[in-house]
Every structure is written in structure tokens, then in C-alpha cells.
Amino acid sequence: MRASPEHLASAVDALLKQSELSREETQRRFEQAFDVDRWRRLAPFASIGSGRWDDGEASSISDSAADREKRRLDEDGYFRLPQVFDSARIARMRRIVEAVRADGWPVAFAFVFDDFWTIARSPRIASFLGKALGEAYLQNTVVWAHWVPGERGVAGWSPHEDYRDVGDTFLSVWIPLSDATVENGCMFLLPGASSREISMATEERRDLPPTVFRRALQDVIALPASAGSMIGWRGDVLHWGGANTGGSEPRLSLALEFRARGAKASRFESPLIDPRAPLPPFRLRLFAIVKALREYTKFEPMLTRYLPLAERIFAETAEASLSSSNAPRAS
Fold first, then answer.
1. Least confident range of 245-249, 287-291, 293-297
2. Which has more confidence, 331 or 256?
3. Tell me, what's the pLDDT at 128?
4. How does pLDDT run across 99-139, given as a tens digit for each residue?
5. Residue 55's domain is classified under what CATH number?
6. What is the Cα–Cα distance from 331 to 168, expressed in whole angstroms?
7. 331 lies in a domain?
8. Which of 114, 154, 207, 330 is most exposed, with minimal Cβ within 10 Å?
9. Is residue 329 part of a domain?
10. What's the predicted TM-score (pTM) here?
11. What's the domain range around 122?
């Protein structure tokens, strides 16, 4: 007798519940999360609270590449810039992610370190983001780090949009810390009008006409990207992480989000920060991490085990989000 989908889902939920951190482990992790010196000992080659906007390491985007990718962004809703960041910096950031994971934390906790907040602040990156969003653009506090194991059949996040009906006022930025290939599950997307049509049909659970389905398959764009590249897309572009088809290396990456100043932002994005201001304080970094963790169990169910910890940290750091005054508050 085969179990129904409902029974299987219930069984999975029960297993995930059983995997939650114990009360004792949650308390221990809660105390460790706020121990800045412990984080520094975990990755002594990295900094927390250095106070510097940019560590001086090079990022490279030629004027011609910036112009070309701005046109692609305007026409198709995405951009791809190869080999933007200094290789030593990317190697250091990968070591941070590996250290955080080895210590039993979700890899998004790498965002307690300065590198993950300064990486998009170099003059060349700021110039490109300014062209895409307007010179006074802001960063929201939705951040994430990805670790997709190098095992056949494992996939990144399922197809989704970030924000609908935001036009050119929003931009997601995705930076690989390891080579993202077709074999280990690089990013894929549907540009332009195809994204909206597929998203609406999925949301409404209706069938697509065969002609639309065939066109969408042919419109899919793979975005393999070497470590240190930078790719991104507008909020209404359907995108997803591919499945590993035999690559043995894990895929590591980080994600950031930016808004045009004055644009209406969601409450989830709040607080917005000015990337020209000092780096976010430590408690605001923790708030951003657990805010996302609470939301992203829908993409990574195994994170459910950390939810009690995330809820405690969220409650403890909520005041930090309210006291942030770098930028206007979201609507």
C-alpha cells in the first residue's frame, strides 16, 4: 500500500521537527551567536567591525562591460559580469563559509563578517549599481549564503521570483565563491515576458498552452559563473538553482539585494541601509541573518532545525533593526 502525498508530507514534517536543536543546544548556540570574539577566533583571518567601507582589494568592471550589461539588464532583466572580484578576497570568503559550516551553523551566519557587507561597496561595483538603480540606491537587509553539496541530483532553490511589479527599482546580486557550472547546478532564469507568464500560471495552478511551454523551454538561460563573477536580475525574473548532474564540487555563493532610493519596499526588506554609510552593527547583521532564515525554510527545509534558535535571536535583535538610521524605513 502506497502512502498518500499528505501522509508523506506529514512524515517529513515530523522528522524535521525531531531534528530541531535541543533546548540545551539552542541556549548554547544563542550565547555563542552574540560572542563576537568567538566568531573572530573561528575565522581569525577575517574581520568583524573593522569600520572600513572597502578593504582596498580590487574589483574590476570595464566601462564597455558595464555598458553592455546595463543594456542586457534593460532589455532582458538580468546581467552577467565575469571575474569581477579579487581572487584572494573570494578565497578568504569561501574559507569563512567553510569555517562557519564546519562549526555547525547555517552558512548564512558568514554574514557576521565584514567581507560579506563590504564586497559590493567598491567604486566600480557602486558605479554599476548606480547605473542600474540610480546613484542614491540603498541596500536592503535581505542577505543569504548558499552551500549546494557536490552530489548528483542535489539542486539549488526551486523556481521563484524575488518581488513582482517592481520594475527597475530592484536588483538581486549573486556572487559565486566557487565555480558555478552546469554540472554542479549553476543559476538558470527565464528573461523578459516569459517569466511573468510562467509565474502566473504556476501560482494559479493552471496549464500552459503547448506553444508557451515550448517557447519557455527554449528561452531558458543558463548562467555558469566562475568564482568572483557577479550576476543579477530584476525582481520579476523567474530564476532557480539547477540540479547537480555529476559535479563533485559544492556550489558556494552569496546573495544581496538593492533598491532604488524612494521606491516602495516590502516590510521584509526593512531596514534599508545606505551602502555609503558605516557597516551595519553586529546585532543588525544577526537580525538580517535570522530574518532570512525564518523565511527560507520553504527553500531549505533542513533549516527547520534552527528555527527555535532563529526565533530567539530575532526577538533579541529586533530593536537593532528599529534603531538603524542609515536609510529610510520600508513601507
1. 245-249
2. 256
3. 97
4. 999 999 999 999 999 999 999 999 999 999 999 999 999 99
5. 2.60.120.620
6. 18
7. no
8. 207
9. no
10. 0.90
11. 5-323
Residues in the chain: 331
**Domain total in the chain:** 1
Contact 262, 135 (CB under 8 A): no
Three-state SS sequence of the chain: CCCCHHHHHHHHHHHHHHCCCCHHHHHHHHHHHCCHHHHHHHCCCCCCCCCCCCCCCCECCCHHHHHHHHHHHHHHCEEEECCCECHHHHHHHHHHHHHHHHCCCCHHHHHHCCHHHHCCCCHHHHHHHHHHHCCCCEECCCCEEEEECCCCCCECCCCECCCCCCHHHEEEEEEECCCECCCCCCEEEECHHHHHHHHHHHHHCCCCCHHHHHHHHHHCEEECECCCCEEEECCCCEEEECECCCCCCCEEEEEEEEECCCCCCCHHHCCCECCCCCCCCHHHHHHHHHHHHHHHHHCCHHHHHHHHHHHHHHHHHHHHHHHCCCCCCCC
> Which set of grid coordinates corresponds to residue 199?
509565474
CB 253 within 8 Å of CB 242? no
330 domain-assigned: no
Neighbours of 6 (CB within 10 A): 8
CB distance 61 to 128 below 8 Å? yes
328 inside domain: no
Instruction: State how far the alpha carbon of 316 is from the alpha carbons of 161, 189, 309, 311, in Å.
Output: 30, 37, 11, 9
Residues 247, 242: Cα–Cα separation, whole Å? 12
Written as nine digits, the cell of 216 is 519557455
pLDDT 10s digits, 237-267: 999 999 999 888 999 999 999 999 999 999 9
Q: Is 288 exposed, middle or buried (0-12, 13-18, 19+ CB in 10 A)?
A: buried
